[in-house]
Amino acid sequence: MIPITPRSGAVLAALAATLTLTGAELPGGPPSTGTPAGLGDRLYPDLGNPGYDVASYDIAFDYHGQDRPLDAVTRIEARALAPLTGFHLDFANGTVQSVQVNGRPATYTREREELVVTPAEPVPAGGTLRITVTHTSDPRAADSGWVRTADGLAMANQADAAHRVFPCNDHPSDKAAFTFHVTAPGDLTVVANGVPDAVPTAVPAVAAPAGKAAPAGKAARVPALTWTYRPANPMATELAQVSIGRSAVLRRSGPHGLPLRDVVGAADRDRLEARLAMTPGQVRWMEGQVGRYPFETYGILSVDTTTGFELETQTLSLFERRVLLAPEHLAAPLMVHELAHQWFGDSVTPATWSDVWLNEGHATWYEWLYSAEKYGVNLDEQVRAAYAVDTQVRKADGPPAAPLPPDQGKLGIFRSNVYGGGALALYALRQEIGAPAFQRLERAWVAGHRDGIVSTADFTALASQVAGRDLGGFLQAWLYGAVTPPMPGHRDWVAGPARTRASVAVKPA
Ligand SMILES: [Zn+2]
Fold it and tell me: For the whole model, what pTM was predicted?
């Protein structure tokens, strides 16, 4: 993700000083089953659920317009990690009509944002859970993962909104296979993560009641189509994308024949062409930095609405139309930021939300590097500007790898400490071990952890291995310290208070 407005962390810092949220001290008390509501993530303690590991989601949505709930069936296949007499799914913003487990009706209750399920029969450790939830998914709530656009819907689930779209184990530490089936009126286009599994199929019209002919003189409506997408790689719930709208799908070829696929408003295809045409070169540039692109396709989803952020939904990054129309030297680095996330965050996924600097620090680093190489921005000056405010940022938002509790809303934990702060730590590491070793580390990181789940400790361990010496203390200070350490090679730099925060601000054209 990248927010495009400056953030204020002062209120949060004051709040954090008085609050310690843990799984045992949740507002409203623990759920009545006694099962923990979440995995105890230190930033989002309620997210995710213990006791099982999801292998796959198969989600069917029936779309009736952006102001009405979608009808949905979510099928989950999971493996029990312990004997289960009951379990939780994360779910909100929809009604539940029924829950089945292993083919039999299950009982369930709703407790805040949890769907608490009791199967008809206990499931042994190692056993399979086949869960079918028939439900609705309401796009109207402000905190929904759905984003209402000028002509339909898109998704922006990061960090904690996927379960406000479909029932799930809503934590990045449980990646799974996904299949989407989306039924929508035939004059709309549906695109989801990955490539289409098949051509869209027409939905058979509901037969008129026996003995009754269809009303005469009524114009035939455009038949609905069902679109099926199945991304090739496992995916975190926060990275799911389903776009429904009056869209044009534009295709081109990237490096080594990588299929590129952009989704834009049908009226925008010419206006956006200059930006979209930059993607092949940007993929080539990123591959030159870190190695082969990790997925089967890439592209840009342009939405005509104001979200206030851009988002790296897997294989299809979400962009506000207004950002794509911004001057090239502002828009293009943000395109590289979301592209870099396909390696850092999407393919290689953080184990906890405290590790999100591994996503944002890297994406910001490549955004800076690209700005320097392509638009002549002085890299050291850019880094020095972030360095100058870093102590202030740590005070307001926490150190990069130990952020303070999230703000309200979708920008939650997406503050300067994980962007500029994370990129600064990477620059410091590069200064410390040298650019060639740093590049070896980056390439080994994304190749060795492809489709995997990683922690900050994993990064420190690999950095030490690649450098051939223990970097634990060095990275501890950069990632967890209350104050900004001296910058190797730039002992004259001062991390003092400053008048402005190190946020990226884009003024749309
Ligand atoms: Zn980002």
Answer: 0.90
